[in-house]
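Repro:
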Amino acid sequence: MKPVPHATSLRRAPVQRRSAERLARILDACADLLDEVGYDALSTRAVAERAGVPIGSVYRFFGNKRQMADALAQRNLERYSARVTERLREAGGGGWREAMDAVLDEYLEMKRTAPGFSLVDFGNQIPVGARHAEPNHRVADRLTELLSGYLDREPDEDLRRVFLIAVETADTLVHLAFRVAPEGDRKIIDEARELLRSYLARALD
């Protein structure tokens, strides 16, 4: 089970602070417009107008809207990783149960509040409804990297397999919860949490 390399959607990486800020505005505009008009109606021109940048600035970074959505998904993963890391740092230790709560809770919070997240999350829903395994492999890779030290475990193939199964399970059930209710059906989320706890207890205790 080989780690999946991180996607890179940028034609050119920003070097100067001004360029990085412009890229951030473009991705923010992309996220807002995804919520407002959906992926099919999204256009690079509309993103440029919303971001307040010339259309050439968008094409400097991205060849098309798919690359923008991919870059937004990658930024979501970076922000998610930072949120989980901060949550665990503040907790100061507590084992896999606390880690699992942080991983699930931060995902649910981004699902509810992060612009554009409901469509692209970590990259597995565009075209809308598409379900590709690769982004979940990237999440499992990232969790193995982040949590192995916290759990005092080797970041080996066995641990990565455990996280991949947990991520695939959580992904399916959380999507079900948000199809049933806009903010996520609480009972389905509670069942998902119990299912994950039962599986991880067998795998990590």
